[in-house]
Amino acid sequence: MRLFSLIIIVSLLVACQPETTTTAKKKTPAKKAQTNKKKAAKKNGAKKNAKKPSYWEQLKKELKINDAKIKELQKAKTEYTNAVKKLPKTSNGKKDPKKITALANARDSKMKRILGNTLYQKKVAFDKKLAQKNKKKKKAAKANTTKK
After folding, report:
1. What residue ranges do the domains of the chain occupy?
2. What CA–CA distance (Å, rounded) separates 112 from 110?
3. pLDDT tens per residue, range 12-47
């Protein structure tokens, strides 16, 4: 009798065990199709989000200038940014706009000296075109978020 009850208990334990990993991982055809779609979407998303060229790379290509001039322009911009950061705040909590304008004019004259008059004018036109493009993108993104 004890042997019989022991056999029944063991058979119940074996029958109640969870499925093995090989049978648990089997997917239905619908699940496989969903997984494949997700993988394809990830691949397509990676292609869409390919790294865009930086401002400096675009400027270099547009003006057809060498790396040395790009480095000088970057240095002039960095010096301007650091100088603006170092400006003290006035009583209203903002930095003095006259000083910022003076620093910007100094930066622009330095860039004009680096590039020359014609290339500097092309740079200004490039900056305006890029600013308009970015403004349109922001407007479109804002419109998309308000629709939802």
Report:
1. 55-147
2. 5
3. 666 767 665 555 555 566 666 666 666 666 665 555
